[in-house]
Amino acid sequence: MARKTVLIDTSLCTGCKACSVACKAWNELPAEKTQLLTSYQTQSAFTTKTWTYMTFVEKYEDQKMNWLMRKAQCFHCADPACMKACSSNAITKTESGYVVIDQEKCIGCGYCVENCPFGVPKVDLIKKKSYKCTGCIDRVENNLLPACVHTCQPGALSFGERDAMLAQAKKRLVEVQKTHPKAQLYGENEMGGMTYLYLLLDSPEIYDLPVKPTVPLSLTLWKDVIRPVGTVAVGGAAAAVVLGVFANLFRGNYGNSDNKEGGRD
Amino acid sequence: MALKMETRNQMPKRIIEDKVLRFSAGERLSHWVHAISFFVLLFTGLGVLSTSFQPAMAIFGGIQVAQLIHRIAAVFFVVVVGLMFFVGNPRYHWRWLKFVFSFKKSDWQHVCAFPKEFFGGHGNYPEQEKYNGGEKINSLITIFGTVFITLSGVVMWFSSSFPPALVRWAYPVHDLSMFIMTAAAIGHIYLGLLHPDSRAAMSGMINGYVSTKFARAHHREWYERLKKEQSMNEQKNV
Q1: Sign of the CA dihedral B116, B181, A88, A135?
Q2: Does CATH place domain A4-79+131-214 in 3.30.70.20?
Q3: Nearest Cβ partner of B51 from A88, A219, A254?
C-alpha cells in the first residue's frame, strides 16, 4: 500500500471534539474523568486510553482573539524515534506510513515514551504495555477512513494518497495565508515527513509543538554508536582472553612450577 | 586500658610466616557482593539489551520478573557496598580509594608492560605497591562505572520524576557503563582464574592471604613496606 496521509486543516476545525469520541468508540477505549483546564481544553496529555484530544489556545492580537485549535494524536513519523528506541522490536512502520505498536512483543520498558519528541506513547503500568494512536490501520487496510476522519463534520480532516494530500495542503495554505499570514504546513519534512500533516494557523511553538522536532541525539548515540562499539569491546575482551589462554598454553606457562606460587622473583 | 588502646591502634600483623594479609574481611565482602550482584544485574538486564536474549529471560520466570530481580539486585549492588565505606572497619575501603586515585609513573610503566604479561610474556616494569597499574585501572573502571551506572539507573527507575531530556541521556550512560564494566570483568576474571602468573592472587580475595612469594614477585614495594612496618612495631613492643 502506497504512502497515505491525513491532512489536518486547522482553519476548518471547530473544536467539536467528535474526533476524540469516534477514536474512543472505534478503538473501544473507555472514557476518562476530565476537567476544564484552559479555554475549552479538557486534556493536557495523552494517556493509555486517550489517543487523540483537542488543544485550544487563545491568542490575543490587536484586541482580537485568535482561537487556535488542534487535534493532537501520533504523527506517525517516517523516521520514528519510538521505533529506534524500542527494546523489543515491538514498534514497526508500515509501507503506508503508519507506526504501530505490537502489544504482544511490547514489554512496557517505556523507552518509546521517553524518546518521542511529542510525548505520544504511554505505558500502562499494570499491563506493562505501551499504547498510542494506531492511525486506525485496521480500518485503513480495509479501505475504510480512519475513525476520526470519518466523523469530522467541518471537513478539517481528509485522508488520501500522500502526493494528493500534499497538493491539497499547499493549495489550502495559499488560501488560508490571506487571512492568517503566519499559517504554515507542519509535517511535510519534519521527522522525515509525518503521516499526519498539519495546516497550522500560526507557528508551531504557539501550539506547544517543537519547531524542529528531531530524533534525540542521545538516542542516535546510544543505538548507533555505544551499542555497536560496546558489543565489539566486550567481544574483543573475550577474544583477548581466549587468545591469552592459548598463548600461555603455547609458552608452557601452565606447567611452570614457579607460577603456581605466583613466583618468578 | 591504655595498653588496650595501644594494641588497637597498632597495625595488624600483616605478614605471618609465608603469607601476607592483602584484603580484610570487609574488603572481601564488598568485592563478592559487588561481583555477584553485578552478574545478576548483567544477566537480568540482557532482555532489554537485545531481543535475542529475551527467550533466555525464562530462566528468571519471564522478562517482568527479570526486571524486578534487576531492581532488587541493584539495591544490594549500591547499598551494601556503599555501607561498607561507613560501617564495620571502613578504613580499608578508603585506603583502597586513596591507593587507586594516586596514579604514578610506575603504574603507567606497569600498564605499558601489561599486554605482554596478559599473553603470558614477561614485561619490564618497576616494583609495584599493593595495587599495580593494571589493578588501579580496573578499580577506577569499577568506581566510575558503578557511580555512572547507579546514577543513570536511578533516573531510569524513577523516570517519571525526571525531565525526559535527562532520562534520554540515562540510557546511553547506563549502556556505556555496562559495556566497559563487562569488558573489564572478563579480563579481571581471566587474570584471577586462568592466567598462570597472576591467578595466585585469587586466595587474597578468598581467605585474605597471598603467598609471600607472590607478594615479593608482584608487589615488592608493598611487601617491603609491610616488612619494615612490622619490624618497627615488633621493636616497639619489645
Answers
A1: negative
A2: yes
A3: A88
Q: What is the ipTM of this complex?
A: 0.90
Pick out chain A residues at pLDDT < 70: 257-265
Q: Domain segments of chain A: what residues?
A: 4-79+131-214, 218-260
CA of B92 vs chain A CAs: smallest distance (Å): 24
**Inter-chain residue contact A248 with B119, CB threshold 8 Å:** yes
3-state helix, strand, coil in chain B (%, to 5): 75, 5, 20
Rg of chain B over Cα atoms, rounded to whole angstroms, equals 21
Each residue's pLDDT tens digit, A6-61: 999 999 999 999 999 999 999 999 999 999 999 999 999 999 999 999 999 999 98
pLDDT in tens, B13-27: 888 889 999 999 999
Residues A248, A251, A254, A257, CA torsion sign = negative
Q: What is the CATH number of domain B16-29+89-237?
A: 1.20.950.20
Comparing CB atoms, the residue among A88, A113, A262 nearest residue B197 is A262
CA distance B201 to B142: 18
